[in-house]
């Protein structure tokens, strides 16, 4: 992206913020009727039924649901790495037609490049953008410190633990300074302790940088602990069933009974939806 | 926050390595003793089955008159030149085949066919085209190595984990930068397999070519031993060939492969 377009987006944001109350009126991300269907050996699979979502700038939104509910599909479409079958996505006032550095996707497997050390991994996006080497080094240094990986600049990914890999991947994403972070079950493969720890870190990074975060997870408590909103998906066909707003004060403790209650409420909603669906399918099969 | 947990991989203990060396050394000493024992029994005629001492005398002669060193230099120079040419061509061809469907369907099928052709089959063509010249040797080496390297690069590109390409594209990498900075390094483990296979084929085809075209070279010395009916010479040169093969593998390919496999997370 050229510098002028970056500036113009910032101008638009600044302008809209002047008009309305800060954050409230600015839609960082508009998802309108986005769906995904594909053919799998002659069978049509509805991976995602049309979704409408409006996400404000700086909002922390968790997409929650069991596997096969289309939440990762939606994230890939928002990233521009996958094309929707229908619908349209607008990010920061611009229609999404492909990947862009204003929306960075983080993967469960961290996807660090194994042939580069941590420093050069974090510099990768800056290098693609043509940032001079000296500046690159400074920026990378700053974000490696942000994610508490100082001292591991010269380590290669195979020398890092799973949690450290995720931290490096977060630093790599932050270095590019995207408006939107898309996190696809980034802590799904980590143990509970590391996971708790990284959740706290992501929350403080979010609080410090005011980035919009879309966070995919199948862990209800994780979703409630982190999200301003929890959008619940159900599988087969993948679809959005509820949009919960989480008003609990931060930072939230996983043991807090209000959080536990909220998590239970969300889980109930998901369970009853899935039972309803099973019932319908049973009825359907007995009728026909 | 607390200091991050460290999981820096440990070096293998040195003693393990020494143990392996001792076992191997013992094996070869026993083998030579067995060989000497068999010779002492005179089961086969001396001019068909030389003893280790005869072979050593023969080898010492070649070392002392300098002909072994010259032969090794000549052969390795041919090997190196041919290998470098096939490396460059193989990388280009592999990238083309791996990244373009139409090139794959056409040129890819041809490369696959030629890969199956024993590289010795290129010797007649080489002699007709280039005559009894260096170029003929190098041509045979190139034809031996090129297709393995090409297929290795192609396989590596096809097996690039999609997540690396996704991440790179997301970070604004495209075109040549994507190919050179992401796809090619991601393909390195597979490319290395091709490079290693390419080297063994190059080595084999060079020896085949040198047997036909007598010069001062390793193949030439081997064939010379046959002409003179000197079985000790034949044995001596064969042992030299084996040692060169082992040294090249142990000093170049094995360490490279180990480093890459470890760093790419393919082994621990």
Automatic annotation (TrEMBL), chain A:
Stated name of the protein: Nitrate/sulfonate/bicarbonate ABC transporter ATP-binding protein
Give start and end of each ABC transporter domain. Answer: 29-260
Q: State the taxonomy lineage.
A: Bacteria, Bacillati, Chloroflexota, Ktedonobacteria, Ktedonobacterales
- Species of the source: Dictyobacter arantiisoli
Superkingdom of origin organism: Bacteria
The record's keywords, sorted A to Z, are: ATP-binding, Nucleotide-binding, Transport
GO terms (molecular function) for this protein are: ATP binding; ATP hydrolysis activity
UniProtKB/TrEMBL annotation, chain B:
Domain ABC transmembrane type-1: residue ranges: 72-252
Q: Is Membrane given among the entry's keywords?
A: yes
Entries under Pfam families matching the protein: BPD_transp_1
Keyword entries, A-Z: Cell membrane, Membrane, Transmembrane, Transmembrane helix, Transport
Give membrane topology per the record: Multi-pass membrane protein
Q: Which domain of life is it from?
A: Bacteria
Q: Which GO terms describe its biological process?
A: transmembrane transport
Q: Which InterPro entries match?
A: MetI-like (IPR000515), MetI-like_sf (IPR035906)
TM ranges are: 21-44, 80-98, 110-130, 136-155, 176-195, 201-222, 234-256
Carries keyword Transmembrane helix? Answer: yes
Q: Name one GO cellular component term.
A: plasma membrane
- List locations, semicolon-separated: Cell membrane
Q: CDD domains, from UniProt?
A: TM_PBP2 (cd06261)
Q: Which family does it belong to?
A: Belongs to the binding-protein-dependent transport system permease family.
Instruction: Identify this protein by name.
Output: Sulfate ABC transporter permease
Task: Name its species.
Answer: Dictyobacter arantiisoli
